[in-house]
Amino acid sequence: MITVSSADINMWIAALLWPLTRILALIAASPLFGNSSVPASVKVSLGVMLALIVAPAVPALPAADPLSLAGLLILMQEMLIGLAMGFTIRVIFAAVEMAGEISSLTMGLGFATFFDPNTRGRSSAISQFLSLVATMAFLAVNAHLVLLSALVESFSTLPISGSPVYGGGFKQMADWGGAIFSTGVQLSLPIVGALLITNVALGVLTRAAPQLNLFGIGFPITLGVGLLVIAMTLPYLATPVQNLFLDGIERVRLMPRTWSERPPPPRPASSPARPAGLGP
Question: Do residues 187 and 243 make contact, with C-beta atoms less than 8 angstroms apart?
């Protein structure tokens, strides 16, 4: 006769619940899987399917009741790990969107804003266009499959444990967030530089011919030059965006190892050397 105890049921629930929490947190935070246009039922179904595949290969789980305080702390820790891994990839898309914002403001398209369902705010037309281009590049290089592979690999590099993770990983994640500003400015530099030269030329032209209406001809010229530069630089954006994806995936792979490492214990202060000839 087969008997099932409450401990066995708790073990089965924990074996599925804790990996599912990390997977669903990454799906919710990642830019492609967590898109608002994807139905919630599809996200949950994908997470459950991945959890059923990953659960048999997960290392030994801590002996804790999922409904106890220790089990809830493990659940929250797994959720934070998944959110951090998804946020690492979202930083890349935020940098691309910032490049679009800078370009649109320089072109004079600051008024051409649309409602962004992902951020629940307003974003410019150029920003949404570059975000769509980055999404297509993300799919073209199979970065979404590599991200799922890194997620599965994280269960081996950072097993589910009741001990808290090392906080140095969160500092590295915050440092990676600074790439939003540096990368956004670098991606928008060709457009900003071309428009700067255009504005200087318009200033010289207005100085040479004061009868010209700068406000009448300035906006169409800057807008046309901006769109022309975007069309010319768009094929060359593939390499830097692909390098950003590779860097982001590599950080996702290394992040669990950083959290699993513990800082070395502080060394005790060595006593000063005693001069020769002195007693104890």
Answer: no
Dist CA 158 CA 20 (whole Å): 15
Residue 122: φ, ψ to 5°: -100, 140
Helix, coil or strand: residue 58: coil
CB 124 within 8 A of CB 97: no
User: Please, which residues have CB within 8 angstroms of residue 105's CB and are 6 or more apart in sequence?
Assistant: 124
Specify the long-range contacts of residues 11-17, CB closer than 8 Å, at least 24 apart: 11/61, 13/66, 14/61, 14/64, 14/66, 14/71, 15/55, 15/58, 15/61, 16/51, 16/52, 16/55, 17/66, 17/75
pLDDT in tens, 146-188: 888 888 888 888 888 777 776 666 777 777 777 788 888 888 8
Q: Distance between terminal CA atoms of the chain? A: 74
CB neighbour class for 221 (10 Å; exposed up to 12, middle 13-18, buried from 19):
middle
Check if the beta carbon of residue 256 is closer than 8 Å to that of residue 154: yes
Give 70-126 as a 3 state SS string: HHHHHHHHHHHHHHHHHHHHHHHHHHHHHHHHHHHHHHCCCCCEEEECCCCEEEEHH
Say which residue, 50 or 122, is predicted with more confidence.
50
Locate 183 and state its tokens: 């990368």
Q: How many CA atoms lie within 13 A of 133 on its CB side?
A: 23
Residues facing residue 122 across a β-bridge:
115
Is the per-residue pLDDT at 256 higher than 80?
Answer: no
92 Cβ contact partners less than 8 Å away, ≥ 6 residues apart = 31, 134, 179, 183, 241, 244, 245, 248
- The residue among 278 and 85 whose pLDDT is bigger is 85
